[in-house]
Write a structure and sequence with these properties.
The structure holds three protein chains of three kinds.
Chain A lengths: L8 H32 L1 H10 L3 H29 L7 H22 L1
Helix pairs in contact in A: 1-2, 1-3, 3-4
Chain B lengths: L2 H6 L1 E9 L3 E9 L6 H11 L19 E4 L2 E4 L5 H4 L5 E5 L6 E3 L2 E2 L2 H9 L22 H9 L7 H5 L1 H5 L6 H11 L7 H8 L13 H5 L6 H16 L6
Helix pairs in contact in B: 4-8, 5-8, 8-9, 8-11
Chain C lengths: L2 H29 L6 H8 L3 H29 L4 H27 L3
Helix pairs in contact in C: 1-3, 3-4
The chains are: A mainly alpha, B alpha+beta, C mainly alpha.
The structure holds iron/sulfur cluster (2 copies) and FE2/S2 (inorganic) cluster.
Chain lengths: ~110, ~250, ~110
C-alpha cells in the first residue's frame, strides 16, 4: 500500500518522471542500433521495420511515445518550479502534463490504426 | 450510559513500543472534544503505560519537539486534532518519526538532523558586535522577503521525515537544513553567505532535491522548503559561472 | 564533477532536448500513419544538413542527459557510490554518443 505521506500529486509526478526516464534511457541504445541497420542497406532497415509491424511492437512503440511525453512534461514542470518565480507547487501543471500524455497517446493510436 | 455508547466514545490507539524491534500496543483512550494527538499520547502515559517514551515541551506549536508519525504521516502532535486524523472508525496509529534513528517508543534521536543543519552551515555568522549600531535592513527588499518566507521554521523535522530522498540518500541534507541555508543566503547581515551557499550546494546538498514537494505538503507551519531549495539551485548556477553571488 | 556542474549539464541538456522532443513527437505522429518504411525515413533524412544537425544535437544532448539521470537513480536506490559510478556514467555517455552518432550517420549519409 502507498504510504499516506507519499500520496500527493507531486510524488506521483516524481514517480512518473523517474520511471519514464529509466525506461527511455534503456530504450535509447536499442533505438540507435535499429536505425544503424540503414548502414548495412535500406533493405535491412525495411526488414526490421516490417518485422516490427505487429501488435506487440506497436504497443511497445505506443508506450514509448507516451513515456517520452510524460518525461517531457514532468521535466518541464520541474524546471518551471525551479526557474520561474512561483512559490506554490502549481499542481495544475501535473494535470496538464497528464492530459498531454493521454492526448499524444490517443493521437498515436488513431493514426497508427 | 449504555455499553454501546461507551464503545463509541473510545479511540482505538496503536502505539509503537520498543526501538527498531518492537510491536504495536493497542490502547482504548477516552475521546474528548478538541483533543489533540499529543493529549492522547499523554493520556496513555499517565493512565495506561507509565514507561511510554515520547517528547514534547510547549504544547502550542512553537518548540517543534512533539513530531510523530500519525496514521502514516509525520505531524506535530500538539496541534493535530484527533478529529482531523482519526476516521469514522476512531483509529489512530502512532509511530516515531521516519528517517531518524529510534531511541525508544515514540522518541527518535535528532542528532543527525541537527548535524545536517551544521553541515549546511545553517548558523548565522555575525559581522557586528553589540557596540555597533543595528544593521538597517529593508523589509521590502526581495532578499529579505525571501528570507522571511522561510524563517518561521520550528525545527520539528516533519519535512525531514516526509522527504523520500532523505530516506534514500543518507548524505542528503534534507529540506529543513536547506531551507535554513536559503534564509541565510538571503540575510544581508550574515558574514559568510557564499560559504553557506557552497555548503548547501556540496555533495548531498540542494541538487539532490527532486522538487516533488512532500516537505511542502507536510510542513506544519506552511513553509515551502522546495522553493528555497530551488533558489539555492539557481544561486549555485550563478556561483558556478562566477558572478560572485551573493 | 561537482553536483552544481552535473546539475547545470542536466538542466541545460533538458532545455535543449525539450523543443527537439516536441519536433520528434510531432514527426512520429505524422509518420506512423500507414506504417513506417525505410524509403520514407531515409528519403527525408539522406543528404540533409538540417536533419543531420537536428539529430546530431539530439544525440549529444541525450547522451549527456540520460547517464546523469541514471546516475542519480543508482545513487538513491542502490549502494553504488564513488569513482566507479562516475566512470560508469561517463562510459554510458560515450556509448550512447557512439551508437547515436552511428545511427545519425546511417540515416543522413548518402551511400
Ligand atoms: S521537494 Fe526536495 S526536500 Fe522536499 S520532500 Fe521532495 S526531495 Fe525532499
Ligand atoms: S521546515 Fe517546516 S516541517 Fe521542516 S523542520 Fe521547519 S517547521 Fe518543521
Ligand atoms: S510540543 Fe512544542 S511544537 Fe508540539
Amino acid at each position: 500500500m502507498i504510504r499516506p505521506s507519499r500520496n500527493h500529486p507531486g510524488f506521483w509526478a516524481f514517480v512518473a518522471h523517474r520511471v519514464s526516464g529509466v525506461a527511455l534511457a534503456l530504450f535509447l541504445p536499442l533505438h540507435f542500433l535499429a536505425l544503424g541497420l540503414a548502414l548495412e542497406s535500406d533493405a535491412a532497415l525495411d526488414r526490421f521495420l516490417s518485422a516490427a509491424d505487429n501488435p506487440v511492437f506497436k504497443i511497445a512503440e505506443w508506450g514509448l511515445v507516451v513515456l517520452l511525453t510524460v518525461h517531457l512534461c514532468a521535466g518541464l514542470r520541474v524546471m518551471a518550479l525551479e526557474f520561474l518565480p512561483w512559490r506554490d507547487s502549481r499542481k495544475g501543471l501535473i494535470g496538464l502534463g497528464a492530459v498531454t500524455a493521454v492526448a499524444v497517446g490517443a493521437i498515436f493510436l488513431l493514426r497508427v490504426g | 450510559m449504555t455499553a454501546a455508547r461507551d464503545e463509541r466514545e473510545r479511540l482505538s490507539v496503536e502505539v509503537w513500543r520498543g526501538r527498531d524491534e518492537g510491536r504495536f500496543e493497542t490502547f482504548a483512550v477516552p475521546h474528548r472534544a478538541n483533543q489533540t494527538v499529543l493529549d492522547v499520547v499523554t493520556w496513555i502515559q499517565r493512565h495506561a503505560a507509565p514507561a511510554l517514551a515520547y517528547r514534547f515541551a510547549c504544547r502550542v506549536g512553537v518548540c517543534g519537539s512533539c513530531a510523530m508519525t500519525v496514521n502514516g504521516r509525520p505531524r506535530w502532535t500538539c496541534r493535530t486534532h484527533v478529529s482531523k486524523v482519526a476516521g469514522a472508525d476512531r483509529r489512530l496509529r502512532i509511530e516515531p518519526l521516519r528517517n531518524l534513528p529510534r531511541i525508544k517508543d515514540l522518541a527518535v534521536d535528532l542528532t543527525p538532523f541537527f548535524e545536517k543543519w551544521q553541515r549546511a552551515q545553517g548558523r548565522f555568522t555575525p559581522t557586528r558586535n553589540r557596540a555597533d549600531p543595528l544593521a538597517p535592513v529593508s523589509p521590502e527588499s526581495p532578499a529579505r522577503k525571501a528570507a522571511d518566507a522561510g524563517i518561521e521554521c520550528i525545527n520539528c523535522a516533519v519535512c525531514h521525515a516526509a522527504c523520500d530522498v532523505v530516506g534514500w540518500d543518507p548524505d542528503y541534507l534534507g529540506p529543513a537544513a536547506l531551507n535554513r541555508a536559503w534564509t541565510l543566503v538571503n540575510d544581508e547581515r550574515d558574514g559568510d553567505r557564499r560559504g553557506v551557499l557552497q555548503a548547501a550546494a556540496a555533495g548531498g546538498g540542494c541538487h539532490s532535491c527532486h522538487t516533488h514537494g512532500s516537505c511542502v505538503e507536510h510542513c506544519p507551519v506552511g513553509l515551502n522548503p522546495t522553493a528555497g531549495i530551488a533558489g539555492l539551485k539557481r544561486r549555485s548556477l550563478l556561483d558556478l559561472v562566477g558572478s560572485g553571488l551573493p | 564533477m561537482s553536483p552544481a556542474r552535473l546539475y547545470l549539464l542536466q538542466r541545460a541538456t533538458a532545455l535543449i532536448l525539450a523543443p527537439l522532443v516536441l519536433v520528434h513527437l510531432g514527426l512520429i505522429l505524422i509518420a506512423v500513419e500507414g506504417g513506417l518504411t525505410a524509403a520514407e525515413i531515409l528519403g527525408r533524412t539522406r543528404g540533409s544538413v538540417g536533419w543531420a544537425a537536428f539529430y546530431g544535437l539530439f544525440v549529444l544532448a541525450a547522451a549527456i542527459h540520460a547517464p546523469i539521470g541514471l546516475r542519480n537513480v543508482i545513487h538513491e536506490h542502490t549502494s553504488w557510490r564513488g569513482r566507479s559510478l562516475g566512470f560508469a556514467t561517463i562510459a554510458l555517455g560515450l556509448l550512447l554518443a557512439g551508437l547515436g552518432a552511428r545511427a545519425v550517420i546511417a540515416v543522413v549519409a548518402v551511400p
